[in-house]
Structure formats: structure tokens, C-alpha cells
């Protein structure tokens, strides 16, 4: 009988343990020594404690060089998952930094704790090769995100957005659990590698087909891909802006990482083919259709949006289509390119939402017209916005351009006889369409005049430092992508 070494488990889960302890410290400090202080002071102290905990956990994950597999894949520690954890923790730090100037809640300790609890769920999500742990970690993180979406009690849209997010999330969880239970029934295991062995040579029997489709539907909701995207625009618009930034960044990184892991490890032999005039039944042609629909609908619908937060939501749907190229290409090069793209996209998204939050608090809205004259009211802020939106559009030498270059190149190389070229051409065409709506925002910021005698916009120091650092990282990873790709 194998004995369970709990000290070994704690050692391997040390980064998650550190963040868990940080949650308790932040909550304790907020209800004791910071009780009765101003919201600004409570946010600053809570943010400092949260950031220190995240940095400590990230340093531990980054510097250790450990490979371990506990309980038949229930917890897997390797350099790849550790680096993704570092990326998630970095995104959490930036989310907390841009949150410090927000004044949408008096419950500072609870808000920061929920961000950290969501981070813990995402960290466990990337550290497993077992379906049961995938489901538990995914729902643990999702519960925190639902509450974060509803955290602005002064805005009715926040409660409405959270309800829609929760209902769609519950539906996706049902599909996911049903698919996972069928996979267990077919293979007799919840371990991804054992599932691949269990379904090998069985062909596409009806149960496997249903399991495949329901799993894709479940993850389609999580990554906001068409036609499972309906919750995203309302959630992005109604949620407090820092919460929307976290939903669009950290959860995206973890979800795509585990999505790629599930299908490339667990559905080996059921890939099929999505090459032009060479379709074979499997999960790659399904992802190809979902990716094409996401790119087309996301970009075309973003054109008619007047709210910048909804515009960024539909942009996120389109970018989910681009990211799916890395999954369906199903090569080590495409997986690496996808993670580079997802991480740099997440950094850019937090930056864009940070700018929106400052403008929203200064002008009372997030409509494109609220950005009029931003270059004269806040030159540094408008420059950051320029960098973020041009990177999302894929303009060189920014990270968004090199990410798309890596991703599209890997997709073209993956299909036999350039069979995936049709999807890459569509992606490039839709990227060109995206320039239009990004330039609409930049036109308002740089060409249009501010209304009346609009005063200069004061940008909170911590928020501005976070935005400048994010802009520098977007430029740096675009000019020197090797700084990131060496770890992928």
C-alpha cells in the first residue's frame, strides 16, 4: 500500500500554498489593522501584500527545476506548467496594480482575495493531466470570476452580467462534465494519457463522438469562441473593469493551455484533418470551423460597437479564433506559438482595460466618444493606448505582430501541402478588418477634440506605472521575442 507523503505534496504545490496564505493575510489585515481606514489606504496595503505574495510564488515556480507526477497525473509539475504559472501570477500582479485606483467597492479585502483565489484555481488547472482535477480547478476559478463580475453594486449591469456569466458557465460545466464522464466510461480512466490508450483503435463510435463534441462545447464557453460566446460582451461591459481585465487575460492563458493539453494528449488518434479538400472526421475540423466563425463574427461585430469594453470583448472573441489555430495545427511549434500569442495578448488586454478604466472614471463612460482628445488631456495614457491597440491589430514591431507571425507560420507548416492555408488567409483578412475598429478609438483619442473645456485627466501613479510597464513589455517581446520563446 502506497503511503501519502503530505510534505511532498506541499513542496510541489508550494506556489499555490504561498498564494493561499497570502489570501488569509490580506483578509486578516483588512479586517484588523486597516479597519476604519480610507478605501485608498486599504487598497494600497492590500495590493502590496497581494503583490508580494504573488512575486514570492512566481520566483519559487520560476527558479525550481522539478519534474513530478503525483497520483497518476492528478498533479503534474514540470518546467512548462511552472512557466505558465509565472505568467498567470504576473497577470494577477498587473490586474491588482490597475485595481488600486478603482473605487467601485468598499469590500477591499474580499475583492483582492477573490482575485487571488481565482489565480489559485488557474494555477492548479495548468498543473494536472487528470479530467477530475481539470473540472474542479476550472470551476473553482470560475466561481471567483462570477463573483468578481458582480462586485460593482452601484451598477445594475454588473449584476446582470454576472448572472448571464454564471448561467452560461453552469451550462458549459454540465457539457464538460458529461463529456468527461463519457471519456471515463470509454477508457476506464480519467488520466489523459491513459484515455488516449483506451480510445486508440476504436474509431469514431457514437460515445466517443458525443464526448468529443460536448468537451469542445464546454471549453468553447470558457474561451468565448463562437457560437458559445454570448456571455462575453455583457460580462466585459458590466463587470468592474479590473475584473474584466482578469477574465480576459489570466483565465484565457490557463484555459488555452489546458485545452491544448486535453486534445493533444487525450485525443491522440482522433485528430482527423482540417486541410483544404482533405477533411477527415475528428476534433481538428471542428476547431477549424469554430476558429473561422470566431474570427469572422468577432471582428465584424466589433466594427459596430460604441462601447470600448464591448469592442474589446468582440475583439477577444476574434483573438480566440486566432489562438485556436495553434491548437488545431497540433504540432510542438504551433503549441509554442499559441502560448506566446496568448501570453502577449493577455498583457496587452490588461493594458487596454487599464486605460479604459482611467478614462471611464474621469469621464463617466467607456464609449468611444469619451476618448475624444485623450492625447491632449493625458499624453502618456494615450501613448499607452496607441501601443496596446496597434499590438492587438498586429502592427510591427509590437508583440501582437510577432505573435501572429509565429502562429500563422506554424499553422501553414502544419497542414500537408499547405492545407491549412485557407484558414490562415481568413485570419490575415480578418486581422485587416480589425484595424478599422481599433483605429476608430485611436482617431477619437488623437484627431477629435475634447468636449468644451475638458480638464486634463490625472492618472493614478500605480496605475500609470503598471500601464507603462505593460507597454514596454509589449514592445520588448515584439522586438526580442526570444526572451519569452526560450521558456516555451
3D architecture notes:
The protein has 488 residues and is an all-alpha fold. It has a domain of 218 residues. It contains 21 helices and two strands. Helix 13 packs parallel to helix 19, helix 14 runs antiparallel to helix 15 and helix 15 runs antiparallel to helix 18. The radius of gyration is 22 Å and the shape is globular. 57% of the residues are buried. The model has no long low-confidence stretch (mean pLDDT 89).
Q: Pairing-aware structural class of the strands and helices? A: mainly alpha
Question: Assembly state here?
Answer: single chain
- Cα-based radius of gyration, to the nearest Å: 22 Å
Which sheet architecture does the biggest sheet show? 2 strands, antiparallel
Mean pLDDT over all positions:
89
- Contiguous uncertain segments of 5+ residues: none
End-to-end gap? 38 Å
Number of strands: 2
What count of helical segments does DSSP give? 21
Biggest sheet strand order reads 1-2
Share in β-strands: under 5%
What letter string, H or E per element, gives the SSE order? HHHEEHHHHHHHHHHHHHHHHHH
Give the CA-based shape.
Answer: globular
Q: Share of helix among residues?
A: over 70%
Short characterization:
With 488 residues, this protein is mostly helical.
Tags for this model:
single chain, 488 residues, mainly alpha, 21 helices, globular
List the SSEs and their pairings.
Blueprint: H1 6-12, H2 14-31, H3 39-63, E1 68-70, E2 75-77, H4 79-99, H5 108-125, H6 131-149, H7 156-187, H8 192-199, H9 206-223, H10 231-238, H11 241-247, H12 250-266, H13 283-302, H14 308-329, H15 332-363, H16 374-377, H17 379-393, H18 399-414, H19 421-446, H20 461-479, H21 482-485
Antiparallel strand pairs: 1-2
Helix pairs in contact: 2-3, 2-5, 3-4, 3-5, 4-5, 4-11, 4-12, 4-15, 4-20, 5-6, 5-12, 6-7, 6-12, 7-8, 7-9, 7-10, 9-13, 10-11, 10-14, 11-15, 12-14, 12-15, 13-14, 13-19, 14-15, 14-18, 14-19, 15-17, 15-18, 15-20, 17-19, 17-20, 18-20
Amino acid at each position: 500500500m502506497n503511503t501519502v507523503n503530505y510534505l511532498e505534496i506541499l513542496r510541489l504545490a508550494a506556489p499555490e500554498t504561498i498564494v493561499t496564505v497570502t489570501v488569509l493575510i490580506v483578509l486578516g489585515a483588512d479586517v484588523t489593522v486597516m479597519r476604519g481606514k480610507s478605501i485608498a489606504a486599504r487598497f494600497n496595503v492590500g495590493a502590496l501584500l497581494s503583490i508580494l505574495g504573488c512575486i514570492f510564488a512566481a520566483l519559487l515556480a520560476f527558479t525550481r527545476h522539478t519534474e513530478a507526477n503525483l497520483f497518476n497525473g492528478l498533479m503534474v509539475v514540470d518546467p512548462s506548467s511552472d512557466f505558465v504559472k509565472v505568467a498567470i501570477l504576473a497577470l494577477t500582479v498587473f490586474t491588482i496594480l490597475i485595481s488600486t485606483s478603482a473605487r467601485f467597492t468598499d469590500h477591499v479585502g474580499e475583492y483582492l482575495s477573490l482575485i487571488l483565489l481565482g489565480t489559485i484555481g488557474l494555477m492548479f488547472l495548468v498543473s494536472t493531466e487528470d479530467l477530475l482535477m481539470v473540472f474542479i480547478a476550472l470551476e473553482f476559478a470560475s466561481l471567483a470570476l462570477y463573483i468578481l463580475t458582480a462586485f460593482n453594486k452601484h451598477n445594475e449591469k454588473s449584476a446582470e452580467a454576472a448572472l448571464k456569466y454564471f448561467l452560461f458557465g453552469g451550462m458549459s460545466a454540465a457539457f464538460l462534465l458529461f463529456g468527461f464522464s463519457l471519456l471515463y466510461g470509454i477508457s476506464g480512466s480519467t488520466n489523459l494519457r491513459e484515455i488516449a490508450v483506451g480510445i486508440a483503435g476504436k474509431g469514431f463510435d457514437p460515445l466517443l463522438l458525443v464526448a468529443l463534441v460536448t468537451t469542445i462545447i464546454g471549453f468553447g464557453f470558457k474561451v468565448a469562441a463562437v457560437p458559445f460566446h454570448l456571455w462575453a460582451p455583457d460580462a466585459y461591459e458590466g463587470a468592474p473593469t479590473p475584473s474584466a481585465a482578469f477574465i480576459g487575460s489570466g483565465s484565457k492563458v490557463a484555459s488555452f493551455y489546458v485545452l491544448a493539453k486535453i486534445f493533444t494528449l487525450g485525443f491522440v488518434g482522433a485528430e482527423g484533418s482540417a486541410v483544404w479538400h482533405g477533411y477527415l472526421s475528428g476534433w481538428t475540423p471542428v476547431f477549424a470551423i469554430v476558429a473561422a466563425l470566431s474570427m469572422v463574427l468577432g471582428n465584424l461585430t466589433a466594427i459596430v460597437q460604441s462601447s470600448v469594453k464591448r469592442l474589446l470583448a468582440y475583439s477577444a472573441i476574434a483573438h480566440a479564433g486566432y489562438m485556436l489555430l495553434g491548437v488545431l495545427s497540433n504540432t510542438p511549434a504551433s503549441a509554442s506559438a499559441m502560448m506566446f500569442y496568448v501570453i502577449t495578448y493577455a498583457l496587452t488586454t490588461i493594458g487596454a482595460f487599464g486605460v479604459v478604466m482611467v478614462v471611464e472614471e474621469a469621464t463617466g463612460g467607456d464609449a468611444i466618444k469619451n476618448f475624444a482628445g485623450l492625447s491632449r488631456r493625458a499624453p502618456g495614457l494615450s501613448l499607452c493606448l496607441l501601443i496596446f491597440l496597434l499590438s492587438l491589430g498586429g502592427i510591427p514591431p509590437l508583440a501582437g505582430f510577432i505573435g501572429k507571425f509565429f502562429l500563422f507560420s506554424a499553422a501553414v507548416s502544419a497542414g500537408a501541402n499547405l492545407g491549412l492555408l485557407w484558414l490562415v488567409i481568413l485570419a490575415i483578412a480578418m486581422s485587416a478588418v480589425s484595424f478599422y475598429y481599433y483605429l476608430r478609438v485611436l482617431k477619437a483619442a488623437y484627431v477629435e477634440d475634447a468636449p468644451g473645456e475638458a480638464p486634463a485627466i490625472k492618472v493614478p501613479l500605480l496605475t500609470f506605472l503598471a500601464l507603462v510597464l505593460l507597454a514596454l513589455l509589449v514592445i520588448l517581446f515584439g522586438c526580442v521575442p526570444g526572451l519569452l520563446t526560450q521558456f516555451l
